[in-house]
Amino acid sequence: MTRLNTNQWLALVIALFSMGYLVMAYQIPSFPLPRPVDSDLFPKVLGFVLLGLALLLFLEQPKARDVPQPSDVDEQAIPLLLRPWSRVVVTSLAIAVYAAILVSIGFVVASTLLSFGLTWYYGYRRHVVNLAVSLGVVLALYLTMTKVMNVYLPTGILPI
Amino acid sequence: MDAFNNLMYGFGIALEPINILYVFVGVFAGTIIGMLPGLGPISALALMIPITFAMDPSSGLILMAGVYYGAIFGGSTSSILLNAPGVAGTVATSFDGYPMAKQGLAGKALAIAAYASFVGGTISIVFLMMVAPLLSKVAVSFGPAEYFALMVLGLTAVVSLSDKSLVKGLIAAVIGVMISIIGIDLQTGTVRYAFGTAHLLDGIDFLVVALGIFALAEVFYILLRGGGGKEQPRNVIGSLKLSRGEVKEIAGPIGRSSVLGFFTGVLPGAGATIGSFLGYSMEKRLAKDGDTFGKGNIKGVAAPEAANNAACTGSFVPLLTLGVPGSGTTAVLLGALLVMGVTPGPAMLVDRPDVFWGVIASMYIGNIFLLVLNLPLIPFIARILDMPRPLLLSLILIFCMIGVYGMSFSVFDLFLLLGFGLLGLGMRLFGFPAAPLILALILGGIMEESMRRALQISGGDWSTFIDKPISLTLLIIAGLSLTLPLVKKVVVRVRATS
């Protein structure tokens, strides 16, 4: 069996997605009064168009730009936690944790922690500068949003 | 005379102290964000949207327009100093700008970029003033069928002019439309694709998608490429002065490229990137010393810079007159306007002349700011390029968070932002263009509404889209824009085999 190329893998994923999308489109309820176009038509058209495009993608030969290029970094030479993909995963987790604790601990503390922590994790070692910039920018944003633009941001554990 | 009176009215708005401040802030912030490699005008605009929430629409658009052309201008600085264009529209500038910087002439290249941007911007505003009212008069006669066809053309043009795969561009566009229809269908009240969660009933805000797909995905991409790696050494700037002979030499290219750039910008899908490449190649062909292009020819900096700024102004024509953005960047601008409660289109000239003429007048002021403020400040502003990359990446993340949370106050949207960031990274890695997705997201809802209204008027008769000459013509052009590249490919292959 010949191996599937990148475009063919992507096409299969997109085809599966479009089929799921179509199944849901057929479950959209009809409007009680007869109309020339109901809410389900557009989603059905989109689902079938995407399915057709997935087929075309399956037949398209991938070019160099369609395949992720290996990083210039020698991954084996660096610890697992600092490898490029690990950085993406850790950053994503940090954002998820930030979203989860934002309301309870407040915008200023959560954002300063996120900025300081990630900057440190990315390899910046001047901690005082890091803390000053992180706290300064976050405070400036917080004050602009809350005092100038009257946009509420959660205060959390801080009194203001 | 009418245009003159309207412009004076616009200046009355643009010269209000608060609006002058907004032009300045917009141009300055745009210059800085545009300068940062990877962050283009779309990210710059998306990051600035939260600031415009509470603003008067004319002030908001004045600020956003400043960010847009500021970002285009800022992109040229990193193109010239680092050979790392912050914006796709300034890639052509690096062809001769960077060699000039390597020869110790960075200051001269930056000065030429500033003058060319100023002239290109100013000439194109005059064209914008002349063309926009004419086009909006034509557009008044457009019905839903014509609008639907126009939006289809806008989408196909962006897809076909992208440098990536046509099929992948179309897939991105279809996914963009799919995202746009999530939530309650306003015509029937039916809920679509909300997965039973109340968070999705109002749909997904475009800002969440724009910040995720562009800004957050860019952060992820930089991390994946080694966290930005070592900082690149920046070339010294040197003198900013130009000789009289040099001014004379660049005058022609700037004039020609300004006009070319404007009309490229008006076309859907074209814009600053194509405008700058066209300007560059036109001058290379016309120049007697064309063989020195790419080695530090000053005309090679002047032409693309005039063209990209002119195209940037030109792209306001379809946005303001038809309400249909021709690019991802103007799509974000349209989204921002809708958030502020203004619907651009042919009626805008009558309903909101303050927004229309205020923005046009502010562009004159913004271009002067770009020149007068940025030129002497360039050596200082360029120091932002020395900012440690880890710190910069973290701050971009904070801007994304506050942008999304400050608009919706929803933690759910922060998770969505993360999801779109990862989707954007995947798209980037596998060669899917992001601009069609964001354009389709903005246009999707209006497109469906136009289609349904057209079909309701025709009693469900689909031939309504081809019965009307304007709609038919637009759909034919849309079809051609997709099929011509394929036909060209087949012809080349057949010729090669024979």
From TrEMBL, chain A:
The chain crosses the membrane at residues 41-59, 88-121, 127-145. It comes from the Bacteria. Coiled coil: none annotated. InterPro entries: DUF1468. Keywords: Membrane, Transmembrane, Transmembrane helix. Residues 9-154 form the DUF1468 domain. The keyword Coiled coil does not apply. This is TctB protein.
From TrEMBL, chain B:
Residues 20-439 form the DUF112 domain. The chain crosses the membrane at residues 20-39, 110-132, 138-159, 166-184, 204-224, 319-343, 355-378, 390-423, 429-448, 469-487. It comes from the Bacteria. Pfam families: TctA. InterPro entries: DUF112_TM (IPR002823). Keywords: Membrane, Transmembrane, Transmembrane helix. This is Transporter.
